[in-house]
């Protein structure tokens, strides 16, 4: 009996010893299954640059696509107009826009074309089958599908001299032509400049009266706010006077840049006319080229500029 009891005591001690060895071993293995705090943080830190790079790629992809870059212009111009311009660029031939200043005589001043020389130009156009169109017609032709006669031109005058009413208006009307006056609104009623009643009469006869700023400044010398004031106020003055929207703007001194063009769009213009040499095409409605007409240019030179787009 004592022998059996001794066996049980030895077995009990063996079990106690085994249990003390097994329990610490399980605890140790389970603790290894959880990364230490420092190691866990290191793994997260190592992954962040990868995630950040991927996120940057996702946010940058749309920015570099051409369509996204063009959204600024698409907001400024109605989508229909932009689509029309894209379609028109390869379909519509260019058209000469003639531009004059004063129709009067002054020796040595090339900006003052004599009434006699101006009539010679109009007579040549009439005898050779040319028809005048307005800037509204031109815009609709380039961008809205309007059909025009085969031989057309646009007649424009910068600044708004009173002799445009006294001389150019009746001569052009004699040949069935109309034109556009780019009026400096601050000069309306001033000495040698058009009066309100004259502008109204010309407008009723089918002439367009469009903006040439308030005071004819070099726009690139002004602040953004000042440029916007010149564009917007001159437009409003003419619209209130003539009870019709104004769509075109002629850059004083032919000076323009991307900011001026942006502000033209922002203030509601559809066209910007330059003094850049050449015929008008549909490529850019705010960089419209024109044909300069000056005193004593001669009929041959006038003919060359009207008949040859690459003069």
Write up what this structure looks like:
With 311 residues, the protein is of the alpha/beta class. Helix content is 51%, strand content 13%. The protein has twelve helices and ten strands. It has helices at residues 2-32, 37-64, 66-69, 71-76, 79-88, 115-127, 135-143, 163-174, 196-204, 224-242, 258-266, 299-307, and strands spanning 97-100, 102-103, 112-113, 131-132, 152-159, 180-183, 208-211, 248-250, 271-277, 288-292. The strands form two sheets. Strands 1, 4, 5, 6, 7, 8, 9 and 10 form an eight-stranded parallel sheet that branches. A two-stranded parallel ribbon has the order 2-3. Helix 10 crosses helix 11. The model is unreliable at 20-89 (pLDDT under 50).
Q: What's the helix and strand layout?
A:
Elements: H1 2-32, H2 37-64, H3 66-69, H4 71-76, H5 79-88, E1 97-100, E2 102-103, E3 112-113, H6 115-127, E4 131-132, H7 135-143, E5 152-159, H8 163-174, E6 180-183, H9 196-204, E7 208-211, H10 224-242, E8 248-250, H11 258-266, E9 271-277, E10 288-292, H12 299-307
